[in-house]
Structure formats: structure tokens, C-alpha cells
Amino acid sequence: MEEDKFVCSEICPHFNKINNVKSLEPKSEEYQKLSNMFKLFSDETRLRIICSLLKEELCVCDLCELLGLNQSQVSHQLQLLRNSKLVKFRREGKQIFYSLDDEHVELIIQMALNHILEEEKKNGRM
Amino acid sequence: MEEDKFVCSEICPHFNKINNVKSLEPKSEEYQKLSNMFKLFSDETRLRIICSLLKEELCVCDLCELLGLNQSQVSHQLQLLRNSKLVKFRREGKQIFYSLDDEHVELIIQMALNHILEEEKKNGRM
DNA sequence: TTTTCATATGAGTATTCGTTCATATGATTG
DNA sequence: CAATCATATGAACGAATACTCATATGAAAA
């Protein structure tokens, strides 16, 4: 790893830039947490579950019905979301109702959606 | 797939909820684009590259130096970012300079970072 | 208290994805 | 035009992860 960490002779290393960036960037622990968070959004199934819960509290079975997924699939994904404290749940008889436990999620997804939609508009015009 | 798409007898399907959610949620094509976008942020290496480019235009070699990665690794990740139009680049002699080609990226990461930091604060207090 | 229903979970498998190594490309320099 | 330098790319391998199937749990109903 260290052996091929080359620096392109004398031309390239823009050390002023590099030091500038170094001073501004998040700490490495934060990078890990950030990427873990984005990982939760990166699977389409999970994302659809999250977006569904944005609007309504739903039970596992509702999610299966809504998304056309089997129960095991939904429960496994919900487990991941639970572990990351992104969703909360309450029991009501035999059913368990899930809802989002985070105020930022909606904003983040909305931003990303804005990006997508603008991208579409841009490509539509060219 | 279809066979085990059960609906928990008569109790569960909260069809009014389900229909409400259905009417509000993004279209399935958008889900795919959204998850693809988040996938780009979900790898720590890629995320560090993105965050570095947030501040400065940098050449491949700068990124290697800055992040302690080998050239192949950086180029492969840049290829993914290029394919998704998240970065742009310009050639200057032998070097290629990359920069971000998107205004939303910074906002999205900032939101997520807010989330992380608040989470930390919350846990610190308990 | 046995059965049923909604959900959770573990193991196994298939697939996706990141890294590495080797090599290619394309611009510059001698 | 041969050599060198910065970067790109393809193939192979390994690790991570999503899905499936089978089974467990825990509440309610019979």
C-alpha cells in the first residue's frame, strides 16, 4: 500500500490545495458514519420502505402489500433500519407498526430527488 | 414471488394508508436513480473523494496523496462518479483535473452530516 | 393450552462491489 | 519516434450484502 503511494514527481502535488482540503474535511470517524447512513439509502428496496414510512406509520404487512415484497425481505431490511435507529416501532396486538425516527431523512431524500428531477429536466431539453 | 405475497387476513391491510402512500411516493424509475445516487455516497473511499472535490479542483495524483490511496483505486472510483455525471474533468497536459459538477451534492452531504452530529450530541448526553 | 397469526431471525446461496495487478492510452519530452 | 509520465481500464479475486427458505417467537384466539 505504502510502496505505490506515489506522488507524480515534482509537477503534480498541489500541496497548498491538499492542505486546504485537509483542514476542511470531516474527520475519518464521521466519514464512516456518513457512508453507513448513505448505505441505508442505497438499496432500492430499503429506500422504498423508508419513503413509504415518510408519509405514514405502517405495519410490516402493509409494506409487503404496498411494495410487492415478501415478509422476510421486509423484516430483514427493517432490522437494518432499526439497528441504525432510523425507524422506531410499536406493538399493537400481533402487529408491529413502524415509523421514521428522524427529522433529517426527509430533507436528505428531498434534496436528492431535486437533483434527480433537475437532471431529468436538463437532459430532456438537450 | 407472487405466491407468498400474502396479506395478513382481514385485520391488517390498511388500504387507505396504502393508497395514500402510493399516491405520494416517487415513481419507480426515480427510486432507481435515487438509490444509484446514494450508492455513490455509500462507499467511504468515494465519499472522501467527493468531499475533497467539494472544496477544490484536484488532479488524480492530488487525490492519491491526500487520501493515501493508490492511483488505480482513485481512477476506478472517479470513473463511477464520471458515469453518473457527478464530476467533470479537464485535461491540462498530462494531468486531469476533476471537480464536482453538481450543486446538490454539498447540500445532501451537509444534511447528512447534521444528522450525524446531532446523533452524536444526543448520545453524548445520555 | 393448543393453534393461529404477524413478525423476527439464522443459515445458505447468489450477486454485487471494491481492490489489486497488469496493461493500455494519450500527452509530453528528449 | 522512443521514452516517460499521468491516468484509464480490464480481468480476477475476495469481501460484503440482499434474497430465499426454514424455523423461532410472542401475542391473541379458540
In short:
Two copies of one chain form a homodimer. Chain A is mostly helical. Chain A contains six helices and three strands; from the N terminus they run αααβααββα.
User: What is the CATH superfamily classification of chain A?
Assistant: Winged helix-like DNA-binding domain superfamily/Winged helix DNA-binding domain
What is the subunit organization of this protein?
homodimer
Number of domains of chain A: 1
How would you spell out the order of helices and strands of chain A?
HHHEHHEEH
Radius of gyration of chain A: 21 Å
Q: Calculate the terminal CA-CA distance of chain A, rounded to whole Å.
A: 44 Å
Binned, the helix content of chain A reads 55-70%
* CATH hierarchy, class of chain A: Mainly Alpha
Content-based structural category of chain A: mainly alpha
> Uncertain spans of chain A, ≥5 residues at pLDDT below 50?
1-5
CATH architecture of chain A: Orthogonal Bundle
List the helices and strands and how they pair.
2 copies of one chain form a homodimer.
Chain A: H1 15-24, H2 28-41, H3 44-55, E1 58-59, H4 60-67, H5 71-83, E2 87-92, E3 95-100, H6 104-125
Antiparallel strand pairs in A: 1-3, 2-3
Chain A binds a DNA duplex (30 and 30 nucleotides) through residues 8-9, 11-12, 39, 43, 45-46, 59-61, 70-79, 91, 93-96.
